[in-house]
Structure formats: C-alpha cells, structure tokens
Automatic annotation (TrEMBL):
SUPFAM superfamilies found in the cross-reference section: alpha/beta-Hydrolases (SSF53474)
Name of the protein: Lipase
Similarity field: Belongs to the AB hydrolase superfamily. Lipase family.
TM stretches of this protein: 7-28
Originating gene: LOC108558215
Native organism taxonomy: Eukaryota, Metazoa, Ecdysozoa, Arthropoda, Hexapoda
Keywords from the named record: Hydrolase, Lipid degradation, Lipid metabolism, Membrane, Transmembrane, Transmembrane helix
Pfam families to which the protein is assigned, alphabetical: Abhydro_lipase
Organism: Nicrophorus vespilloides
Residue intervals of the Partial AB-hydrolase lipase domain: 47-105
Source domain of life: Eukaryota
Entry coiled-coil feature ranges: none
Length: 413
C-alpha cells in the first residue's frame, strides 16, 4: 500500500514541476501571448508609475561615506495638495530583497506612500545599497567587482546608508528632524544606526518599526531557519559559486510571474506561496490580480551577506556579523561578535507587528520592547492572520494599521 501511494505522490509531484517547467519555458521564449492580458503596472519604473497615478515625483542621489550611490524617491504631496508649505518629512525604508517599489505594489488606494502623502506628509522612499535602484558605487562595478561591491550587511546600511540619507533629507527640506518608518530589515538597520551612531537620535521625531526582525530566537520562517541549521554548507555554496549577490531584479522573473501569477493561471496560488512562505500566510487578504506586479519588482536584489547576518543571529541574539572565531579576534578583538547596544536608541519608537508573522513572533517582539528605552506605542494588528508582507500589500492595511501610524506621528508632528 505504501508503494502505491509513493508512486502516486511521485507522479503528482513530477506533473506539477513539468507544468511549471512548461510555463517557465513559454515565458522565456514567448513573453506575451497574443490576446493575453498584461497588467499595465508590470515592469514599470517607479517614476512612470507614480506620475501615471497623478502624484508628483522626484529622484535624488546620495553618496555614502564608503562610496555607494543611493537613489531616493520623493512624493512631495498628495492629490489634494493639502498644506504644501509645511509638510513633515518621513523616510520610508524597505526590507531585504526589496526596493522603494515594494511600497507601491498594493495599488494607488492601498499603498502607504500615497496614503501618507494624502495625510499631509512629505514622503521620501529609500533604496538601500545593492538593490535595483542603488546598484552603483564611485569605484566598484557590481558586475565586475561583485565580491567587493556586495561585501556588506545591514550593519553597513545602518552605519552608512541611513545617516547619509537622513542628512540629505534634512538639508533638502530645511527641517531639523524627520519621521522614519522601516519594514523588516528597515527597522533592524535603524537599530544598528542608533547603536553605532547615537547622535542621529536627535534627528528623528519618531520611528515606526513595522514587523521589526531584530531578535530571531523564535523565527518560524523555513527560508531563515533551514540555512541556519546548515550554516557551513550554505556558506560554502556561496563562496564556491560566487553567489555574493542575492536574487537581483530580472526581466525573466517578470515574464515568468506574468505567466504564473495572472488571474487566468491555475498556478496563481503558487505565487502567493512563494512570497508568503518566508513570512506567513494570510488567506485572500490581497488583490490577486496584482501578483504579477509584485513579482515584477520583488525580488530587487541585495547582498547575500545581509541574509547570512540574519541566519547567524538565530539562536545568537542581536549581534554584529559573525566571521568565525579567528577573524572575529582580528575585527572585534573577541571570539564572539559584540552585541548592538539597544539602550542607545533614545528616539521615540512605535512597534507594529502581526499575529501570524513568521519572521517576528510575539516573543521576539516582546524581547525587543524590553530592550528599548523609549517605546511609545505597541500595536498588534487586529487581524489574527496578519503576516509579514501584509504590511506592504494587505487590502485592509489602511484601516487596521496605517491610520495607527498617522495617529502616533500626530503626537510628534
């Protein structure tokens, strides 16, 4: 009987992968079939998308102390053009493998940047080093000098990228302080910045931590947990094959997503699975028509070292990058990497988390709350299944989350 079911399982699994293979082959060799619906937002650059939705758009560039050239995107005001002269600036920072476009994937009436622009804020969207919009350096070529260019983690993003960006926004807006909102890694790198460069506390009105993946003692995500269990093998593969850049933006992925994820595809649910297997599932709380749009912008690339930093911190607290005992002695003067000092995060912090977020389980969130000296709000989203990527794409985020962010900012406006 066991053999019978084994062969059925193998047959079904083989058929599934053959079906996917056919779809992938077709997507590569025949990107758009005659008469096939293609969502108008697929593959658009952010400037085209924002302007087409009627919003003002500005592109800015910032160079960090260590030579990375970052691209910033600005939505100065909303369609209502309310309060054009005195709008508080807010810097919104994406997570790992994302770009500024990730914040706009939910559509014009659901996306956080548009919502904040309509609420009277001057919105700045960050692009951290190495993603699709910030793949530049004053000396290094990311395609030629790949190992050197991508030799960074979210430590360097916190130490170099955010300070340079904050200083630029303050200079351009003439304000002495700004708001900061970070999703996932965008919250982690903020904690790094304040630990390593605490003078930047005085430049932040309030920080909004959305699904902050700081402590990962209880992480449930298989894409984090499994590499942590097989750390040596994972790192050997990275070095042997030179995989220093992780999942860069690809036109092939865009074409495959258009085939797999459109409303007529029988494999559309697979698209939801591919994104949410990392951060938890929340049923049908997203407009499935937009899945091809999401995957035309995510992944947007990062350094593999960013991911490795996370996996090395599992079971190991919130520490700097672990190079191994020998190199740790050279870099840190100790066999064990030092902890980040969260007591230095003096800026007001609001923490927002979901009940079904596999990357930020409640025990880890509570540990973060206990570690920070100035937590001014803790909000658990009123949806039992709210997961990691719902902070970006949920149909209900405006009502059950974004208005809470604005309420907190109003207290410091």
């Amino acid at each position: 009987m066991f053999e019978y079911f084994k062969y059925i399982f193998i047959t079904v699994l083989s058929t599934f992968f053959i079906h996917i293979g056919i779809v992938v082959y077709d997507a590569i060799h025949h990107p758009v079939a005659v008469g096939q619906f293609v969502h108008p937002d697929i593959g658009l650059d952010i400037e085209t998308l924002v302007k087409r939705n009627g919003y003002p758009f500005e592109k800015h560039h910032v160079t960090t102390e260590d030579g990375y050239i970052l691209e910033l995107h600005r939505i100065r005001h909303g369609l209502n053009k309310k309060n054009l002269t005195n709008r508080p600036p807010i810097l919104i920072v994406h997570g790992i493998l994302e770009s500024s476009m990730a914040w706009l994937s939910a559509g014009v009436d659901k996306a956080l940047p548009y919502y904040l622009a309509e609420q009277g804020y001057d919105v700045w969207l960050s692009n951290c080093r190495g993603n699709a919009y910030s793949r530049k350096h004053i000396k290094l070529n990311p395609d030629v000098d790949k190992k050197e260019f991508f030799d960074y983690s979210w430590h360097e993003i916190g130490v170099y990228d955010h300070p340079a960006t904050i200083d630029y926004v303050i200079k351009k807006t003439g304000k002495s302080k700004i708001f900061y909102a970070g999703h996932s890694q965008g919250s982690v790198s903020f904690m790094v910045m304040m630990s390593e460069r605490p003078e930047y506390n005085k430049k932040i009105k309030a920080m909004l931590a959305l699904a902050p993946v700081v402590f990962v003692d209880h992480v449930k995500s298989p894409t984090f947990y499994i590499p942590a269990l097989f750390q040596n093998a994972f790192e050997w593969i990275v070095e042997y094959f030179g995989l220093y850049e992780l999942l860069p933006k690809s036109e092939i992925i865009t074409q495959i997503a258009n085939k797999l994820c459109n409303d007529e595809s029988r494999l559309q649910k697979l698209c939801s699975t591919l994104l949410n297997i990392n951060g938890g599932f929340n049923g049908d709380k997203f407009n499935s028509t937009l899945w091809p749009v999401v995957f035309s912008h995510i992944p947007a690339g990062s350094a593999t070292k960013q991911y490795m930093h996370y996996t090395r911190n599992i079971f190991n607290d919130f520490r700097k990058f672990d190079y191994g005992e020998a190199k740790n002695l050279l870099v840190y003067g100790n066999k064990i990497p030092p902890l980040y000092d969260l007591s230095k995060v003096a800026a007001p912090v609001g923490i927002f988390y979901g009940n079904n977020d596999w990357l930020t389980p409640e025990k880890d969130v509570q540990k973060l709350i206990r570690s920070l000296p100035n937590v001014v709000m803790v909000h658990k989203v009123a949806d039992e299944n709210f997961a990691h990527f719902d902070f970006l794409v949920s149909l209900h985020a405006v009502d059950i989350l974004y208005d809470k962010l604005v309420n907190l900012m109003q207290q410091y406006k």
